[in-house]
Amino acid sequence: xxxxxxxxxxxxxxxxxxxxxxxxxxxxxxxxxxxxxxxxxxxxxxxxxxxxxxxxxxxxxxxxxxxxxxxxxxxxxxxxxxxxxxxxxxxxxxxxxxxxxxxxxxxxxxxxxxxxxxxxxxxxxxxxxxxxxxxxxxxxxxxxxxxxxxxxxxxxxxxxxxxxxxxxxxxxxxxxxxxxxxxxxxxxxxxxxxxxxxxxxxxxxxxxxxxxxxxxxxx
Amino acid sequence: xxxxxxxxxxxxxxxxxxxxxxxxxxxxxxxxxxxxxxxxxxxxxxxxxxxxxxxxxxxxxxxxxxxxxxxxxxxxxxxxxxxxxxxxxxxxxxxxxxxxxxxxxxxxxxxxxxxxxxxxxxxxxxxxxxxxxxxxxxxxxxxxxxxxxxxxxxxxxxxxxxxxxxxxxxxxxxxxxxxxxxxxxxxxxxxxxxxxxxxxxxxxxxxxxxxxxxxxxxxxxxxxxxxxxxxxxxxxxxxxx
Lengths: 219, 241
Hints:
Chain A is α+β, with helices and mostly antiparallel strands. Helices cover 31% and strands 33% of the residues of chain A. Chain A contains four helices and ten strands, in the order βββββαβαββαββα. Chain A starts with a strand and ends with a helix. In chain A, 47% of the residues are buried. The N and C termini of chain B lie far apart (51 Å).
């Protein structure tokens, strides 16, 4: 477990562990403050004939809530994560196969979607799936006074006017996916994107450090 | 170009890292340098893209690849793998090699097999075989003979022994010439070991206990530094474990 301290733009302390499950091809756990997600990836594996795509791999994302069965909200988040993964993965290299990503919520204390994205990226990297770039998820909340809070807790999310989550790619720091809720101006949106891009640098540096630590024994 | 690679040898790289190919304008008359990209590196126009996380390795003169610790096997032509026969259908066997698709193995691809003289292979048997067709668009195909028609160590496994899975990175370390792990293990007691590049390892020692010792030690080698491993091997050799 590695922990990265927080500084501006403020993210809560985050940590991760790779290769912690024995059965899946790749696995990771990602912790942002009190929010914690466990991710497992399988692939390239056999695919059902009905879901087979002849020129690329089928990406499947399953989100398991802490309690109960997945509902519409989980489905919406699954779609966000799936589309981000599809954009990052080089799925053309494994036609007629499937990549399955299972995300288990361990604890939700705000910024859950960004934690899903970060855990997913770590798990995909651990599984050795071919990727064109990495991605990081950053959540921004705009509170009643118009202040922007990055990586908000559940309480901060509840008191916010608007909530936005962006997936940022590692090569050009562009927005790969965005999911927004509430009302905000165009100016605020652009400000949030700029802040997220800045915050993503920290996450990408953290990715690099933790992967380096993982391979330190085989160097 | 070559320099940008040479600086990074032994470094940990992440997907999305690029090496740009910038030919110096001044020496256009000299022969262009050629590099060979192995697993984890892809050419993308004028640049080389890293698509897996791992350590950049280099083999003289100009071969580069990413050494990663993954678990899922992706078939590559010419590699030797351990497969499990899952079905017999007509004149082919279906073999599970741990990839996304089952591989096919013709019953004629055994040493001395003819239309009349079929090899004795049952469902559930293990086979050590070589991939003769492996690409992303086709079903992988195996053969238990080399190009001269000799078995050359390949074929169906005998009774006994233990099969287990390790990561592909460890398998490559075991198969490296003069691998320290294999040499050290061999000093403990005699045993037979078959290593497939698909991450499957089969071990058979004189007793079941010794077989399990070898299997457990190999599995624990995965996340150990050289010193930690030597300490463990010494303790086992002394009989304290």
